[in-house]
Specification:
mainly alpha; 22 helices; 55% helix
Length: 506
C-alpha cells in the first residue's frame, strides 16, 4: 500500500491500460483510442467513471480481498473447517502471483476473483454464482469468463444435490451466454477497425509476434504443451515469496512443491469419492485445460491459450492443500488434519512479497517528467522505446510517438502503423542530416526527442524483429559521422538524457 501511494512507483502495464483513460490530449491520441477499443466493456466503464490512476492503484487490494473471500468459502465448503479456510488465505498471501498480476490496471486483475467465484460456486453447488462469474468475465476479462462458462456447462452433468434439474441448468446456461454475448459485443465491435488478429499463420508477415519478436515464450506461438503450462501455473501459485515462515532445507525448492502438489491432488481426488463438492471443483481445472486446447487450435480468436490456465490453476493449490490434508489424514478427531494443514503452510509458505507487481520506479528521472509536464510546448515526445519515453504519458500526461509497452502485435493494421512509426524513429535517431528529424516532426507531429547519449558512445540500442536490420543499417550509414542529434543544444538534460526541441531544427 505504501508503494501504491507513490505516483512514481507503479506496474509497467499501467502505461498501456491506464493512460488511455486520462483526459486532455492523451484521450484523443491514437494509442489511447486503440487501447480503449480493445479494453473489455466493464473495465472501460469503470475507468471512464472514476479517476483511472487512483482506481488502478486501489483496485488490486479490493480484488485481492474478494479472491480471499471466495477461496476461503471454497475450502470451508469442502472441509467445514474455519482453520483450513484460514490456511488457504495464508497461502494466497504467501505467493506473489496474485498481486503481480492484479497491479497495473489491466483487465486481467479481475481474473482471480472470477475464477475463485467459480471455484466457490462449484464446491458449494451454487450454479447462479458460476453464471454471474461467466457474465462478469465477459465484461471484465473474457478468458476467465470462458473458463467459467465451460465449468458451468460441465457442471450440468454433475447434478445430484445443489445444481437442480437439467432444464434449470440449461436455462441458467442460456441466460449466462446471452448476458455474456451482450457484455462482450462492444469489445468485438470496437476492435474491428484495427485489422485482423495476428495468429500463428501471420508470424512470417509480422515477425513482431514471432520467436525473435516482442513476446516471451508462452505468449507467442508455438505455445507450450497444455500439461506444461498447467504445471507452471500450479507451481507459481504455491511458490512462496518474502521471508520464509520456517527455515528448512527444502524451503522454496521446486521438488518440495511438486511433492506437495502431488499429495494435494491425490487428497482432492480421494475427497471427490465421497464429496460432491470436491467432484464439482475438479471441473475447474478440466474447464481450464479444455479452453487452453480450444484457444490453441483457434488462435488468435480466443486470445492466448496460456491465459486459460494462468489464473484458475494458480488459486487451486491454496484450496487443494488444506482440502487434501483433510482427506488424506483420516482420524475421528479433526486435529490431525488441522495439524497437517498448518505444517504444510509452515514448510511451504512465506511472509509474502511487499513489492509484487510494482515493477517501475521512475523517481530517478522525476525531474525530467516534471519538466515535460509543465511545458506547454511539448505536444508529442519520441525516444528510444524502453527508455524514459515509456513513462512520459503516465507521469507527464504527454503523448508519445511509440513506447515498448504499447508496441504490441495484436492486430494487423495497428501493427503496421506502429512499425512505420518505429522505422521513422530509427531514421531520425541515427541521422547525420536534419531531414529525418524534420520528417519526424512534420509527418508524425513529434515536437521533442529524448536522446540517450550512451547509444552513440558504445553498442547501439537493441529492439525486436523486424527492426534489428534497420538499426544495423542506420548505424552503419553513419560511417563515423557525428549524429545529427549531437549538433543541437538540448532544452533540458538529465544525466545521459538530452531533450531536443525539434521545432528548432532547420
Amino acid at each position: 500500500m505504501r508503494l501504491a501511494a507513490d505516483r512514481y512507483v507503479f506496474n509497467d502495464d499501467a502505461r498501456q491500460w491506464v493512460v488511455p483513460f486520462f483526459g486532455g490530449a492523451l484521450r484523443d491520441d491514437w494509442t489511447s483510442v486503440y487501447y480503449r477499443a480493445i479494453t473489455p466493456s466493464g473495465v472501460r466503464a469503470l475507468y471512464s467513471l472514476f479517476d483511472a490512476e487512483l482506481l488502478s492503484k486501489v483496485l488490486p487490494f479490493v480484488l485481492f480481498a474478494v479472491t480471499c473471500v471466495f477461496v476461503a468459502g471454497t475450502t470451508f465448503a469442502l472441509t467445514r473447517s474455519g482453520t483450513a479456510a484460514a490456511v488457504s488465505v495464508c497461502f494466497l498471501f504467501s505467493t506473489a502471483a496474485l498481486m503481480a498480476r492484479m497491479t497495473g490496471g489491466a483487465s486481467r486483475a479481475f481474473a482471480f476473483p472470477i475464477v475463485a467465484a467459480v471455484a466457490y460456486g462449484l464446491a458449494s453447488g451454487r450454479a447462479g454464482v458460476i453464471a454471474v462469474a461467466t457474465a462478469a468475465g465477459a465484461a471484465f476479462y473474457p478468458p476467465a469468463g470462458m473458463v467459467a462458462g465451460a465449468a458451468l456447462v460441465l457442471a450440468l452433468f454433475v447434478r445430484e444435490r445443489g445444481v437442480g434439474s437439467v432444464r434449470r441448468g440449461v436455462a441458467i446456461i442460456a441466460i449466462a451466454v446471452a448476458v455474456s454475448a451482450v457484455l462482450s459485443a462492444p469489445l468485438v465491435w470496437s476492435s474491428r477497425g484495427y485489422g485482423r488478429g495476428i495468429g500463428p499463420a501471420e508470424v512470417t508477415a509480422y515477425p513482431e509476434a514471432g520467436p525473435q519478436g516482442r513476446y516471451l515464450p508462452g505468449d507467442r506461438p508455438p505455445f507450450p504443451p497444455v500439461l506444461t503450462a498447467a504445471y507452471r501455473a500450479l507451481d507459481w501459485g504455491l511458490k512462496p515469496s518474502g521471508r520464509r515462515l520456517v527455515p528448512a532445507p527444502l524451503q522454496g525448492d521446486a521438488a518440495a512443491r511438486a511433492i506437495a502438489l502431488a499429495l494435494a491432488g491425490l487428497g482432492l481426488l480421494a475427497l471427490a469419492r465421497t464429496s460432491l463438492g470436491a467432484r464439482r471443483l475438479l471441473l475447474l481445472p478440466a474447464a481450464s485445460l479444455l479452453m487452453f486446447g480450444l484457444a490453441a487450435v483457434l488462435a488468435p480468436r480466443l486470445y492466448l491459450p496460456t491465459r486459460y490456465v494462468a489464473y484458475a490453476l494458480v488459486v487451486l493449490p491454496a484450496i487443494a492443500l488444506p482440502a487434501g490434508a483433510f482427506s488424506l489424514v483420516r482420524a475421528e478427531r479433526r486435529w490431525p488434519a488441522l495439524a497437517a494443514c498448518i505444517a504444510a503452510l509452515l514448510l511451504l509458505g512465506g511472509m509474502g512479497s511487499a513489492s509484487a507487481g510494482f515493477t517501475v520506479n521512475a523517481r530517478r528521472e522525476a525531474a525530467l517528467y516534471e519538466k515535460l509536464s509543465r511545458s506547454a510546448d511539448v505536444q508529442m515526445v519520441a525516444g528510444w522505446p524502453a527508455g524514459p519515453v515509456e513513462n512520459v504519458p503516465y507521469l507527464s500526461h504527454k503523448r508519445a510517438l511509440l513506447t515498448y509497452e504499447t508496441h504490441q502485435a495484436l492486430h494487423t493494421a495497428a501493427t503496421e502503423l506502429q512499425r512505420a512509426r518505429m522505422f521513422a524513429l530509427i531514421d531520425a535517431y541515427f541521422a547525420t542530416s536534419p531531414e529525418p528529424l524534420r520528417r519526424l516532426r512534420d509527418s508524425w507531429g513529434v515536437t521533442h526527442l529524448i536522446v540517450d547519449r550512451r547509444h552513440f558512445g558504445g553498442p547501439p540500442p537493441r529492439y525486436f524483429a523486424p527492426f534489428e536490420a534497420a538499426i544495423a543499417t542506420a548505424v552503419q550509414g553513419m560511417q563515423g559521422k557525428p549524429p545529427e542529434v549531437s549538433r543541437h543544444a538540448p532544452v533540458f538534460a538529465l544525466g545521459p538524457y538530452a531533450v531536443l526541441d525539434l521545432r528548432r531544427v532547420r
